Amino acid sequence: MTPLTTLKARVDEADEGSRELDALVLKALAPGCIIGFYIEGDTEPTVFHAEPLARQKSELAHYTTSVDAALALIEAKLPDSIWIVQRATARGARASIETLSGFVDRILITDEGRAKTPALALCSALLAALIAKEQA
Predict the structure, then answer these.
(1) CA 127 vs CA 39, 49, 55, 73, 99: distances in Å
(2) Measured between alpha carbons, how far is 10 from 21 in angstroms, rounded to an integer?
(3) Closest CA to 123 of 104, 46, 131
(4) Which distant-in-sequence residues (6+ apart) come within 8 Å of 69 by Cβ?
(5) Of the candidates 64, 69, 77, which has an alpha carbon nearest to the alpha carbon of residue 20?
(6) Are 22 and 11 in contact (CB under 8 A)?
(7) What is the rounded average pLDDT of the residues 107-134?
(8) I need a surface site. Which of 11, 89, 91, 118 has the fewest CB within 10 A?
(9) Cβ contacts of residue 63 below 8 Å, gap of 6+?
(10) Residue 17 has pLDDT above 70, yes or no
(11) Is the pLDDT at 103 greater than 60, yes or no?
């Protein structure tokens, strides 16, 4: 199993998103970034990430718990893709991402993800699309 397939299996099996999964997703998709946390006073730790040689840090997005953050990640990694997310309360959620393969032939490729929540399903679909791209 590749690191992406291992992470996809973990996302698919998760009962809910977490800061740990957020960090693992970002680390897999941006291998050079630095992830850490800091505490100010009596507050909860703030998880941050920074690009190598960056002079500032940013709060780590909630990719696995926020549909908006998951969609922003999809748009950053697969611009011009088409995404669909569905929620079925009894069975969790399903998401699909459609991308065009090649400039001339315009073949539409669909990758799906299934997970307990919509944000996790979107992350799973993104990982499926990146795994397919990696194997092509």
Answers:
(1) 31, 20, 29, 11, 13
(2) 8
(3) 131
(4) 61, 62, 63, 119
(5) 64
(6) no
(7) 88
(8) 89
(9) 17, 21, 22, 25, 26, 69, 70, 73, 119, 123
(10) yes
(11) no
Q: Is the pTM of this model over 0.90?
A: no
Q: What is the C-alpha to C-alpha distance for residues 102 and 6, in angstroms, rounded to an integer? A: 27
Question: What pLDDT is stored for residue 100 in this prediction?
Answer: 66
Can you tell me the distance from the alpha carbon of 96 to that of 78, in angstroms, rounded to the nearest whole number? 13
What token pair was written down for 69? Answer: 């953050």
The rounded distance, in Å, linking the Cα atoms of 87 and 134 is 28
8, 109 Cβ separation under 8 angstroms: no
CA distance 93 to 74: 17
